[in-house]
Amino acid sequence: MKTYGKKTWLIPDCFLDPVSNGQVSHEAVCVINTSREDAEIKFTLFFEDRDADTSFSSGCASMRTHHIRLDRLKNPAGQEIPRGIPYAMLIESNTPIVVQYSRLDTAQSELALMTTIPYAVE
To answer: What is the pTM of this model?
Structure first.
């Protein structure tokens, strides 16, 4: 099978809402890896008022998909992505992957779901 995707992706608008009305508000980075190599995925988080955070990572096995829930992602020190703070994300992989970003906002009784394909870098 042909390998599809890019190694670098950008998401400029990320936000983990601290408020929830039943279901947990969350974001997800969904990845598909069509290559014969396991993907090692590194996240860099950018903030308005603090230094970038390069401590988060994940993976996606060869010829698999992985639904990475950002509200459950922890760095090696056990820290989570902060809630209630806008941030942007750079996603880098050692092998080409395709990335989809989704956000479920459950702060109000009218749930909001949005999804997009992030900006892929050549």
So the answer is: 0.92
| Residues 6 or more apart in contact with residue 15 via CB below 8 angstroms | 27, 84, 85, 86, 87, 103
Fold exhibited by the domain 6-121: Hypothetical Protein Tm1070; Chain: A (2.60.290)
d(CA 64, CA 47): 31
pLDDT tens digits along 44-90: 999 999 999 999 999 999 999 999 999 999 999 999 999 999 999 99
Q: What is the pLDDT of residue 52?
A: 98
The residue count of the chain comes to: 122
The separation between CA 8 and the C-alpha centre of its own chain, rounded to angstroms, equals 12
